């Protein structure tokens, strides 16, 4: 449904929503206070705090176009800082909390941030360590405890609000018109790409980029005033920022902030959200947990589980075609009652649908959740496109695709070799029967970024002479649905000259109980191999079933056992039977420690940093090939 108010800028959105809900004491944000449970923040309270912080920033010299950095986890103060910055025409520069001090310093220097707002002591200490390296930085606001002897330019959050509230009241006649003076083409945010190699690039996104994208998304994703979203993906990322923050707020819905990633499972059952916005990795983990529980019991329990999945799929397919009869409905009800009810409970028991983005959702995972009565609508986009370009329709999702192009956005498939347009779609005039061959995905629209910050050469390289932004993704249209193959830069060129996209091959293994993470290797090699992080909980359960006291063994010792290697050997042999010759995986290496954001192997949305991982395991990779080259 459309947004609750008309808007063309973020300040307009905020002030008009505040006016709409003024006096209703309607909750917009929620957070959990240790020992006190969940605490509600109304629109009236949000407005007061946002104006107070805006007053403080303006008092300290922040003016239109100035950058205000934000180093914080998801919490109400993140939204307050963003909105306060926008209200006086400033530019939000969000920084991932997982970044080390050197990367934080780079972004602060590169953006020329005048102020930085930080959350907990570990983030504050990063800024303290690098303040002298950031000449443009004039002040720091700290949400938690100050150090014993704080610098003169460091202010506690509560003090900033107290001073700013007085300043805003005394200068309201000057400050209030600033919000309306902000124009659609004014910069709203610099979002720094996570950067798998080299330094991150600042993507310049305007008010028009965000607002056009939100309004288009709300035409096809049915958020409304009664919805409730649990926010846990990083707000620094464009996906959560647009879908889980601005779009949800535009619909007049409520946002609750998860205590942490580790607490999401518990918070889901406390909050009972109606919508869930997540990345594929979370859905994969849920699938593996449910299937693991089903297959670790008796043969009858496993048979019932498989029947329920089959019944759910038959019902979903029939419902899509409008002919789900009484028998299928009864079978679906039984499947939900005896098998899928526990999954629904884990998701809070109130979910209408889920949205997946940030990476490709494996087709089988999407089909499983649909069978279980949880429709996942997968979307697609990039930071540079603010970010949504396409999303599956809720009433007709096609798993394995990213759906239909958004209204106002144009997407084309371009021949990688000669640059010719193979086919294109405008979201305003949708050709539902368009099918094309594979090529690079290029796009135009009001959601496409203005430029890369202070990088004119990179900006020019991103756009071709016809104005198409090159996504670097390979895909095609299939009956009007956009299908992504992989990233061009992820493409493996084997020594035999074969072009291989690893993403779809890795998806083949993501539903296997023994596999937690996998990365295919093969660039300039004679064949493919794989680095695999096992699911150690499943392995230990299997060991116990075989009479092995697994508690005596570390993960490093477990992966060296013949029985464990045999399990993976069987999995790869089964895959290889049906794989094309150049896509067969001839060897594998098991890794005892998972790839994580903290160790630099994953992006904040849990995508593999392939070059980092290849460099880290170069000896192990060489050994996999040496076995066959002797």
TrEMBL record:
GO terms for cellular component: membrane. GO terms for molecular function: ATP binding; long-chain fatty acid-CoA ligase activity. InterPro entries: AMP-binding_CS (IPR020845), AMP-dep_synth/lig_dom (IPR000873), ANL_N_sf (IPR042099). The keyword Translocase does not apply. Signal peptide: none annotated. Keywords: ATP-binding, Ligase, Nucleotide-binding. SUPFAM superfamilies: Acetyl-CoA synthetase-like. Residues 25-453 form the AMP-dependent synthetase/ligase domain. PANTHER family: AMP-BINDING DOMAIN-CONTAINING PROTEIN-RELATED, LONG-CHAIN-FATTY-ACID--COA LIGASE. This is Long-chain fatty acid--CoA ligase. It comes from Longibacter salinarum. The lineage of its organism: Bacteria, Pseudomonadati, Rhodothermota, Rhodothermia, Rhodothermales.
